[in-house]
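Ticket #4471: structure export looks truncated?
Reporter: QA, pipeline team
Priority: medium

Steps to reproduce: submit the single chain below to the structure queue and open the exported record.
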Amino acid sequence: MRIVAYCRVSTENEHQLESLQNQKDFFDDFAKRYNHELIRIYADEGISGKQMENRVQFMRMLDDSQHNLFDMVVVKDISRFARNTVDFLTAVRELKERGIEVQFLSNNQTILGNSEFILTIFSAMAQEESANLSKRVKFGKKVNASKGRVPNIIYGYDKIDTFNLTINPDEAAVVRRIFDMYCTDGYGSRKISNTLNETNTPSKKGTRWTPKTIRRIITNPIYVGTLINNKIETVDFLTGKRQAVTEGESFTHPRPELRIISDEQFNLAQKQMIERQKIYENKNPGGRYSNRHIFSTLIKCANCGYSFSRKTQTYKNTYYRWRCSGNNLFTKDFCPNNFVIDELELLEHIKEYLSGIIANRHNFISNVIKEYNVKYKSANDGIDQKALLKQAEKLNHIKGKYKSMYANDIISIDELKGKCAELDGQITEIEKSISDREYFTLKGDKLEEKLQQAINDIENLLSLDEYTNADMRKIIDKIIVHQNGEIYIHLKVLSDII
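Actual output as written to the record:
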């Protein structure tokens, strides 16, 4: 049976990534024991299991399941698959509808019950375990917050331990300079961030200064010696939604030894910020609406990689234009791309491009398949699968000899481990080459079907009277804009294939 495996670890620390490797070894052993053909292992690293849409490899597995690339998905235990009962059942049912079996394996590699009722119980238990863990973490954070826990990273200070900071003299001088520029010189947060970047003033993480960072500094009372904890809490452990706590729920700790700014200057800064917000009618300082507009986060700068941001201009009529946020925030010294795109013109360009694909669908499909085959062939030129299998067999034979040498006290256990680890690495590379070759061959067989589905989605999009960001994202992966005005549209289906 053709099988694929899914595994996941929820953090990126060394122990968890070692656990990920153990899971991969587990599936290799399972496939060999039951004589299955292991097509691919989908592995998400450093990802939570609470929401499946955040797991790239998990979503790729569901996408590949539409193309008859495998017959069964195996997962070591239910908590690795999903900690959200709704997501869990949705994914299982989606796979079952395509004739794909889902098996969850216990630690001794026996198969758990496969009835939906039993699976629902196990999934609910995994979700409850995640909920309880979230409660324990939340409780621990609240206890530490009540005791005066300090932030892990905050500009102007160096952390000593969980409850203590010390003032960093160099950074404190920059904090004072920020307040002076804001209160005395009348600079806005953007001009301050540009000034700091132009003078090569280092930030805490070594990244460029942004207006949002400046606003956070100006509004943080820690700079007048007041530490406020528990201002925001997670209200839904599944979605990660956070909100401000009700009045009286936060903890205020006087810390006079942390003062950098006088009360008078801090209060003046807060007053000026409110007045400036009223002037510019800025109802959401520092806020972001990543999917608010039709092209939000879809348009990328070819020079700096930053997304384009939307600007409204009114002259007789109202116009919406997009420009590079890297150029806009950090000036031309950071990014020279000052090309401005008219929203309606870009939309017409996209519609014309997509209409051209529909009108020449047969050429489009044949050209993509040809490109895929050329790329696949070039990547596998000179690969002799029989020779690879023979080489892997030879390496396993050498491993056996080293084990015999250890059994006869010719080499030590450390030498045996070192030799076997080196050979295992070579064997893994060979098996991966063989697996990838078979996988891409299977995927190529279903290419035309996937492209036809993409064309149907394009036709549905073009039939709409109005378009949303979600509509665009179904078809378009990204739009790359060069400073000379050249625009390249990358279709989602091609990004997944080529």
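Status: closed, not a bug. The export was complete when the record was re-opened. Leaving a note from the reviewer for reference: The mean pLDDT is 79.
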